[in-house]
Amino acid sequence: MAKLWQKENQQTDAIIEQFTIGNDPVYDLQLARYDVMGSLAHITMLEHVGLLPSDELEPLCLELKNILDTIEDGTFVIEEGMEDVHSQIEYLLTQKLGDLGKKIHAGRSRNDQVLVDLKLFMRAEIMEIADAVEDLFDLLLAKSEAHKNDLLPGYTHLQIAMPSSFGLWFGAYAECLVEDAELLESAFRLANKNPLGSGAGYGSSFPLDRKLTTILLGFEAPHVNVVNAQMSRGKTELYVLNAIAQLATTLSRLAMDVCLYNSQNFGFIELPSSLTTGSSIMPHKKNPDVAELLRGKSNKLKAAPNQLQLLMSNLPSGYHREFQLTKEILMPAIDEIKDCLEITHYMISNMKVKSDLLKDSKYDLLFSVEEVNKLVVQGMPFREAYVQVGKMIEAGEFNGSSREINHTHLGSIGNLGLSEIQSQKDAVWNRFGFEKVEDAIEDLLS
Q: What is the DSSP letter of 7?
């Protein structure tokens, strides 16, 4: 089957074709709906600037929407011998509309075509990831409020340190997700810029209206400089992967906490049987396999930005075929982080928190700082109070008999600041501006 770039009587060796195409058609299936969207915006613009007759726009739009229907119902395929999704869609158009189908490529290169597909894809995936993060945030904040009075040992260097609470623990991860979402929002900003019209990286002599396609596709702004638009290939993916890696870091730490807290030596939480597995030799085992795999998958995701950085090393400006390989790093990472967020939500929803943990005498020393602070309130200088309590501990005379805790400052056990954390989260989500994107795409496809 002839390629879009192929000259007459020019043939490509099968071994070269297989090597250069690789797994691209598999990943391109995920871009199909966005290729249709980009084409709809492009031909609408071509008609607007007089490069496509008005009576030809409607049949092209209608047929593109018919193709979109097959994509949405799962019957769309990239046929054997077809190089990519762009070729398949243009082929289907020409099969239905003849030479009219070939007109959609005027003023466009496959370079800016795949760029806009990827931008739309990443933008949509970020919206899905943000929804999953929001669901997990809401759960963690609710758990924080529900367990604000259930005390928990706090650790430094894996040594008991000071009293904490499950409210503080759940709330910490909720706020951490908000901070992670700041990176996700930065990735969204870059994904939400329009490269369409940059062509092969040097624009076009056609009078393209790039501001119109920006509006039609719901982008926040265009990449102004056409060379820079092409240089965003790989850079946008890196922003997304860095945001994913940061989310994965948070999930990995949470998973490690769950593994520790579930062990008999800690015994702070209980996981249901659905989240654990047994041993083939030890009948007592309830292994936290879900948390361990979550930890492993999350740690694996941290490597994705480095993989992409190495792939992009030492490339000058302009298009290079290595860019095709970015999909093989980006798309699996997106699927993985969504799976990890979903299983984390399930795990947190189903774990059982144990109460009255700090009544155990092994946690007496957790209250040493409280004793120091009590002496300070009575008028003793802090350093003297510290030495006095330290001597009591060394002499075996400190038993932490007073379990009273009086933390009142913002972000402490007695004042979790959940409303402030909620406000921070709301501010970040408001900056995303998802509604504008959704409205534009709905108008484009209507």
A: P
